[in-house]
Amino acid sequence: MTFKPSPQTAKAEAPKNPLARSNAEDDSKTQTLSAQGHGAQAGPTYGSLYGPRFGDEVRPALPIETSDPVVYPWQLPDYGGNEVIEITIDERGEIVRKTVLHSLSPDIDNKCLAALENWHFHPATRNGAPIPSKQDAIFPFKARG
Q1: Which of 2, 19, 48, 124 has the largest CB neighbor count within 10 A?
Q2: In whole numbers, what is the pLDDT of the chain averaged over residues?
Q3: SS3 of 67, please?
Q4: What domains, with CATH codes, occur in the chain?
């Protein structure tokens, strides 16, 4: 089976009579929400590298001081993995709550929780005002051996 193009190629023609606008729409007293500026998508039409241009500016809490857990080789787990601890940071940048989400062993849990005692943060902000926030602290460990 082979394709043989026909000598004449079909071309789409532009419509002879363009559609006329109705004056009833232009004279109306109501406007859509997007015409009033409400519900319109923020930012440029084709998107932005920097996100929306309107709304709250929220910045995450950033660590100022951290420390690593002290784990000896014989305390390492039999298999590698990540110890994940959810931390709640208050408006002053202090950790007020710690929850172990993924545990490798009770010894490593205690070492990581102790290391978090020395962590301090620049608090998260909304429009420049400090707010409480949550983050995950992830401690990677290699397998023993």
Answers
A1: 124
A2: 78
A3: coil
A4: 58-141 (3.30.2420.10)
